[in-house]
Design goal:
Blueprint: H1 4-8, H2 14-65, E1 69-75, H3 81-85, E2 91-92, E3 99-105, H4 109-117, H5 126-135, H6 139-154, H7 159-168, H8 172-175, H9 189-198, H10 205-236, H11 248-251
Parallel strand pairs: 1-2
Antiparallel strand pairs: 1-3
Helix pairs in contact: 2-4, 2-5, 2-6, 4-7, 5-6, 5-10, 6-10, 7-10, 9-10
Length: 256
């Protein structure tokens, strides 16, 4: 059974999750050498380019499933934007990000929240796949598993910030009724911070609300890792130690 501390304090999951990742990477490289490193890097790059459009289309699917509408999905050409634009009329093959759902409406904030988190369902088996890749010495699987496992952490300032902002932005009218009620809703916390600085709101109670939103976004991202680690505990009966065992020389024994 996974320790209760990870459920109560989700940030603690970073230590076992990253340890599992780094130890697994070390073991594959030590055992497989440069060919294993090559397979990991190639599979990671290839899978990232496959995963990105799928991730964005899952945002779209979640929106439509919840009764919303989609008018624009910006996607860079290198991630299939040009090809997908010929299939889906709402795809625009140009973006400041890898991909971004730029034009959509939702009937309520519950559906909006579902739009934010839906793609991360794919991440739930991330750490489990990573463990399988190491135990079965499948270097080609480690790259995709790494993307699935860690992409929630990469999105702490994006989707998960936006998820948290749906709650915290409700406090904006209480702090200052003259400000827009949806002021904090954003899928880029750094861009929002720049906007608040321009409006002289960064060092203001609104700035503290934005900081609280980012903290909640980080916790939400950590919760996806908690669910991943929970699956590992269920399948392996605990968190496997993927660290290489000591060599005979390191353990002090002499070869025969």
């Amino acid at each position: 059974m996974m320790p209760l501390k990870y459920y109560a304090m989700p940030w603690l999951v970073l230590q076992p999750a990253l340890k599992l990742t780094f130890n697994g990477f070390e073991q594959l490289i030590v055992r497989g050498g440069n060919p294993a490193l090559f397979l990991i890097m190639v599979s990671l790059i290839v899978f990232w380019h496959i995963y990105t459009p799928i991730h964005e289309l899952l945002h779209v699917g979640a929106c439509l499933m919840g009764g919303g509408t989609v008018s624009a999905l910006a996607l860079k050409p290198q991630y299939g934007g040009t090809i997908l634009a010929q299939i889906f009329p709402f795809v625009v093959a140009e973006s400041d990000y890898a991909g971004q759902l730029t034009g959509f409406t939702t009937p309520n904030d519950l559906v909006y929240a579902w739009v934010d988190v839906a793609p991360y369902v794919l991440s739930l088996p991330g750490l489990a796949l990573l463990t399988v890749a190491v135990e079965r010495r499948r270097a080609w699987l480690f790259g995709p598993a790494l993307v699935l496992a860690l992409v929630p952490l990469m999105s702490f300032s994006g989707d998960f910030f936006e998820l948290a902002s749906l709650a915290t932005t409700r406090m904006v009218p209480i702090v200052d009724p003259s400000l827009p009620a949806r002021l904090l809703v954003s899928d880029d916390s750094f861009k929002l911070a720049g906007s608040l600085a321009e409006q002289k709101l960064l060092f203001h109670p609104i700035g503290l609300l934005a900081l609280l939103t980012q903290v909640l976004g980080i916790l939400a991202a950590c919760w996806v890792l908690v669910l991943q680690l929970h699956l590992v505990y269920r399948l392996w009966g605990g968190c496997p130690d993927l660290k290489l065992p000591p060599t005979e020389e390191a353990s002090g024994s002499q070869p025969e």
